[in-house]
User: Which sequence fits this backbone?
């Protein structure tokens, strides 16, 4: 059965129905998806993302009774995505589809997705940045007289001064705090990386907060997680991203900050914004944030300039000067 399918593939006339929707070919369906994933020179996480995207398209096609996909069907699929998902999610599914069709092209299937474009990304961010006063309130209202408070303070301080992502903190161990030249750094396994081959510099007060927490925790094994759970069920285990978000949310709520626009990721936005406000160059801010494209960093710089040099205040001044 698979041999017959391969011959049909080589002929270039296999329909999507033949590939995926004939119940008799269910095992071949899975085999093709497995071969697609194995053909990718990507991280495990990226492979899982592309597999999810391929399955999404297949489900959409079968739900809509499509037996042989046309370019118009591809555009209809994109319209479906546009009506149901955010720009970033749409781009993920479109990229997955493009990679899937690129693989099918090597099997004789016409690549209908080669010219498909992702959704335009917003020129701004979905989460807000904290103000200096908000940051001061958050840090000042964490009780550091107990282990939990010392941990939470060090965690928020680290997020706020380095712009780390929650997954990078989850993966960090005590031994990852090292020295590079005269600086103390934390080596991290960044987004989409397999190894801890990047680092962030630890400012003195941030390092001090971490050291105070580790001293109170009294852990001798440097291979232990940098930030550990205190709950009965997971005591001593690494804080997961969800727990980190819950801790940060709790510190926000303590000072009256309750908003879908201010989340743990806001601390990353705040760190990058504060670095630029503090005099960092674009390249320095980019290095800290580990942005692969400096255009992402430029959005922060644009927002700062927009607020400092806004035309609206000039209108207000003109009206005021003319008694209006």
Assistant:
């Amino acid at each position: 059965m698979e041999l017959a399918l391969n011959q049909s593939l080589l002929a270039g006339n296999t329909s999507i129905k033949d590939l995926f929707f004939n119940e008799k070919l269910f095992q071949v369906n899975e085999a093709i998806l497995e071969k697609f994933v194995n053909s990718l020179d990507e991280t495990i996480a990226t492979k899982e993302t592309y597999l999810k995207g391929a399955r999404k398209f297949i489900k959409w096609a079968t739900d809509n009774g499509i037996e042989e996909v046309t370019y118009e069907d591809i555009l209809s699929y994109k319209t479906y995505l546009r009506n149901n998902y955010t720009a970033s999610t749409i781009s993920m599914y479109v990229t997955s589809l493009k990679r899937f069709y690129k693989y099918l092209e090597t099997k004789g299937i016409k690549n209908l997705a080669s010219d498909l474009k992702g959704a335009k990304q917003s020129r701004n961010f979905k989460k807000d940045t904290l103000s200096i006063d908000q940051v001061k309130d958050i840090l000042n209202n964490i009780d550091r007289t107990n282990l939990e408070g010392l941990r939470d303070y060090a965690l928020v301080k680290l997020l706020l001064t380095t712009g780390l992502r929650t997954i990078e903190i989850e993966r960090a161990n005590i031994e990852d705090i090292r020295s590079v030249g005269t600086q103390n750094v934390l080596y991290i396994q960044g987004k989409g990386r397999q190894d801890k081959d990047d680092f962030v510099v630890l400012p003195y007060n941030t390092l001090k907060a971490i050291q105070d927490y580790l001293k109170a925790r009294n852990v001798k094994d440097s291979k232990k997680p940098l930030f550990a759970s205190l709950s009965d069920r997971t005591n001593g285990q690494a804080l997961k991203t969800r727990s980190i978000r819950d801790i940060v949310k709790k510190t926000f709520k303590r000072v009256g900050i309750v908003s879908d626009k201010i989340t743990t990721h806001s601390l990353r936005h705040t760190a990058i914004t504060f670095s630029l406000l503090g005099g960092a160059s674009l390249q320095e801010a980019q290095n800290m944030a580990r942005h692969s494209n400096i255009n992402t960093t430029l959005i922060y710089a644009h927002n700062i300039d927009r607020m400092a040099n806004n035309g609206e205040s000039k209108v207000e001044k003109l009206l005021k000067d003319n008694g209006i």
